[in-house]
Amino acid sequence: MNILVVDDEEVYLTSMKRLLRWHGMKDVDTCANGQEAIRRIKEKDYDIVLLDLLMPGVDGLKVLEETKPFKPHTEFIIVTAVDAVSQVVKAIRMGAYDYLIKPVDNEHLVLSIERAYERRGLIAGLNLSRYEKDGEIPGAFGEIITQCPRMKALLSYAQVMARSGNPILVTGASGTGKELLARGLHRAGPSPGGPFVPVNISSIPETLFESQFFGHIKGAFTGATRDYQGYFEQANGGTLFLDEIGEFPHQLQAKLLRVLEEKTFSRIGETKPIRVDVRIVSATNMDLDKACQEGRFRLDLIYRVRSAVIHLPPLREREGDISLLAAHFLKQSAARYGKDVRGFSPEAMDILLRKDYPGNIRQLSQIVENAVLLADSTTIAPRQLGEEVPPPSLVARSLVSLKENYEMQVVFVFNHFRGDRKQTAQVLGITVRQLQRKLAEMKKSARWKNLIGDF
Prior knowledge:
By secondary structure, the protein is α/β, with parallel strands linked by helices. The chain has helices at 10-22, 34-43, 60-67, 85-93, 106-124, 128-134, 149-163, 178-188, 209-214, 231-234, 253-262, 288-293, 299-305, 321-337, 346-354, 360-374, 394-398, 406-416, 421-428, 432-442, 446-452; strands at 2-6, 27-31, 48-51, 75-80, 98-101, 168-171, 196-200, 239-243, 264-265, 274-275, 279-284, 308-311, 343-344, 379-380. It has a five-stranded parallel beta sheet with strand order 2-1-3-4-5, sandwiched between helices. It has a five-stranded parallel beta sheet with strand order 7-8-11-6-12. It is flat, with a radius of gyration of 27 Å. Residues 125-133 and 391-404 have low confidence and may be disordered.
């Protein structure tokens, strides 16, 4: 068993190493700061990491965030002197196995390590390393289009977590593909042949919640003209996907919790209990930590709807995926509307790459679909994206004669447009980000700093 103990107190590290070795755990490394811990966890396959939350500089939550997606088989046990619900929830959401408060009972600590090691052994046996090595996308998640290394590692982790059959919470901003991931989790789970029942919590009127989830018999209330199977019965033997679970009414959360714990319920109007075998996958873009602190969401329910948390990054953080997804949506839309549109002009693609996408993948899909509808040739141009590239100006044409060096061209155009980065980048034929990096580099030189001005 390989163990790493991370804590900024040297005395604690020494005593913990001695304790673990006394209990037969010989391979124990120690680390006194978060940045070093990140490096070592990524470089070495540790079975268990005992991690302090409160450290100067890079704290324990940052270590967990930076390493768990890349080392999904490593189990993290948080050991800290701070007993705070918000910290507990954050750590668990990020994938921590357990959370212990100092001073920790030695037997409790050893038991937690042994159980975490057993769980780690189960996960490691599912051959995650093959996916990480080959950079493949697991077959169950084949509908997810990506070439981003971070996304591929995340999907490999999702594949392992799905096979356990335990509840999983998917988080991420609107439009990041939470339901698509949930369907992949269903296909990768222990009952892929069972039903997948998606439920958007925010779309159900509060007065109908019990009837929709648990069903009812004919005559149970006014308007109940026939027996109805609720979502739990519909999903029996498969997966119930609770989208926007943060919107679940607080007064009904106890009933949901009871069903998840006992796996039984009764339809409205009858007392006969119904037993179901349902796997729960939930999703939210809400900060459930804050909802718990404000009393809007039950902490014990959080523990019941997640054994793992998978956080989908926003589109802007998915390296290389904007162009890949844009090409996919273009092909889809061209086929749907019967239009001969085959690609994007370089200027149009540059516009797509520079957008921020607060609506994420859903927003990109809509932009491309609208562009295909507006296209009057085989190539999407900037005007179909709602933007125009200005014709070359006298300034742009005069750049031909400025061959002395690239920095002089940058200074000339930048000052001509009085610091307008967008116009400067267009004339120079580069992106705004490339221009900003160049300006930052040039400002380090006394020669160029004064010429660039204070724009």
